């Protein structure tokens, strides 16, 4: 219904942004090139046993060297925005404790100029998981309030150097995932957790996620204050944050399960958005967590963003574990909000399963998510900063089964259709960024899961368009020609 269906295309606003996404650690490689410092992910992925296929991002897809070619691939699709992140350790190898790395500054200058030369708006994240290891070693990274000084310094350098050309800034990619996976389950760096939550050598899964989150919120606010005070009037850009947003459908019609689904949103997503927009943590978090939640100072920033970035892929059911007892398992403890997350109800999955264990195809989820955020945050402008479909390598997978990615095309069609329906009903969504431009380093899964619209041969680094790249190209072309005739 999307292609040829001008009815639906007409719901996208005129200057809607269509893009593809990436991130520094997953794409760039060049991990010690031109003076880059070590990041927490460099260190983590080099430890044997951490990454599924024993790989790392040392080379990744060598976007650092091949970026001009990759900009051509973007031009071929016809996107008008490209989301990428700046590697903090490339700009400041030792944080504020060392010099600015001019070669790093120059690299992103060249990338940004190449994009603008093709009419592609840079959509830039300051942080997408990776931080200079120096900050970890000196004071424990996100656990220390000292990081606010570092983040503000880093942000000011980026605004100053690139803000004349960058109109969309994202402070953090998925700070909720960083807090949970870095400090509760400990499966991401700095790999801290209590033994009852995972197998880390140190940490406190009950407390540290909330401390790390609090410091990330304060860092976000510091960057926004700085941008608004010194740059925004002149540079006329927008600044926001990208949250990992999972849609939770109540497991049943019971009040308890409806409240559980609400709690799931609060303990995962509103945990960050409420303090940034309303200036305080969600009530239901406060009442369950009490003093585990840090306090904000009296002058904490409200309305601290220009847009909400939504990384949305999947949905689950949420079942109450506050009134009812649940089988012991992940997601149900006090600090997680007392709900059970499950993809099944009466033996039926919420949506088709995929080769990625957390990804279920439930397009209604994106419409419900956008509508939920619209209502809760008074229709703050939104961008879908990530949405996409992953495919895992199979023992017999040949390149042709990756190139004929009909499932990815179906996924994108159905999610875009559902997104349009939310927009038609008045949601202020201003862009859609497909994850990802290329197959890349998929964190703990290494190179075993592919999210790209372009296939990458990880030996030769050759890029080949998949069916989904061709489909997205036609989709954008249809939109543009529709735009031209109205
Ligand atoms: C995003 O989140 C990242 O921003 C991006 O870098 C990555 O490549 C992309 O998605 C694809 O994975 O794990 O069961 O709690 C990646 C990690 C995976 C964390 C989904 C949250 C939610 C369901 N996210 N997960 S679950």
From TrEMBL:
Signal among keywords: yes
Residues in coiled coil: none
GO molecular function: beta-glucosidase activity
UniProt xrefs under InterPro entries: GH (IPR017853), GH_1_N_CS (IPR033132), Glyco_hydro_1 (IPR001360), Glyco_hydro_1_AS (IPR018120)
Upper lineage: Eukaryota, Viridiplantae, Streptophyta, Embryophyta, Tracheophyta
Pfam families linked to this entry: Glyco_hydro_1
GO biological process, any: carbohydrate metabolic process
Keywords: Glycosidase, Hydrolase, Signal
Protein name, entry field: Uncharacterized protein
Catalytic residue list: 386
